[in-house]
Specification:
By secondary structure, the protein is mainly alpha-helical. The chain has a domain of 51 residues. Helices cover 79% and strands 0% of the residues. It is built from two helices and no strands. The chain starts with 10 loop residues before the first helix and ends with a helix.
Length: 78
């Protein structure tokens, strides 16, 4: 579904759209660029969540390794 909206954009953006639109309309080109930007933002967000998750997992891994070493020392004593 398409909705007619009015936005104010910078002159350099208009020039870029005009230069890169090819055979499609400027509106189609803007929609394509916005879809790409949305996808990129989603990837960036996932990347940030990824980094946060693995940072926590890495910290937990250090604790687990310490526990494993202590357990191995205990087993060696017995």
């Amino acid at each position: 579904m398409r909705l007619a909206k009015s936005f104010t954009i910078e002159t350099t953006l208009i020039e870029y759209v005009e230069e890169t639109k090819g055979d499609v309309s400027a509106s189609e080109r803007v929609n394509e660029l916005l879809r790409r930007a949305m996808i990129q933002e989603q990837y960036d967000k996932l990347g940030a969540e990824d980094a946060e998750f693995f940072a926590v997992a890495k910290a937990g891994r250090a604790e687990a390794k310490s526990f494993q070493k202590a357990a191995l020392r205990t087993f060696r004593r017995d």
